[in-house]
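Hello Y.,

Per our agreement to keep a running log of every chain we model this quarter, I'm adding this entry. I've kept the format consistent with earlier entries: sequence first, then predicted structure.
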Amino acid sequence: MSGWRCFEVDVADKVAHVRLSRPDELNSMVREFWNELPEIVRQLDAGGDVRAMVLSSTGRHFCAGMDLGVFGSPDAPGGADGETGRIRAQLRQTALMLQESFTCFERARFPVLAAVQGGCIGGGVDMVCAADMRYATEDAFFVVQEINIGMTADVGTLQRLPRLIPDGVARELAYTGRRLPAARAVEVGLVNEVYPTHEEMVDAVLATAREVASKSPLAVWGSKEMLLHARDHSVADGLNHIATWQTGMFQPGDMLEAFTARAEQRDPEFPDLLPRPDRF
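Predicted structure for the entry above:
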């Protein structure tokens, strides 16, 4: 996959590696970013052969958040002439569209692993909060930057962050705009592990992604669906949902292959998921 302005994409061993690729601009989120990212994820998900995705970055910082040029451009959302109600309604639709640029991580049938170096600021926090797992370098830090520029974060941080870390810590970050350093981030559970260097982190996260990719993709997809459902519903609802899912999705073939491979002392080989239908 090539031709993207903001990203580089490689696929190997059923793992997609998506890298933010504007290091000189601190990987800030220009207008193209918001269109390219969900399209990349949709394309990777469509074929059914990608089983995990690693999101990493380049340069000193992971992501500096929304590029200020987006706010100031003549055709910025809500800047057109017209009746106020219509402009505000269009702005709401724009916010929902921006949210979908990260919600696409949750809609994908494979897990998304984020590898963060340096600063993860503003929209960068929105983005990694939508990932399944997060990892960081020792120099990494996270900032809910929106409060520092006089606005309320609106692309997912305030909805997802309190589900990842203690509520009081999330509120402190949201109200103060303080930096959360990597050591504290792993302490409160925002990141799974901290690594000394960017290279060591990316290598380790890719290894974890390959381990995920070695499992039954149907079982991994089901696990992701159940975890997301459990996050947003009661235990009773979650138990009911998994019972229904298993009725249709559980098939003995993958389990038989797992046991057979173990007995034969080899790696199991599971079929890919079928392509995602895009039209009837």
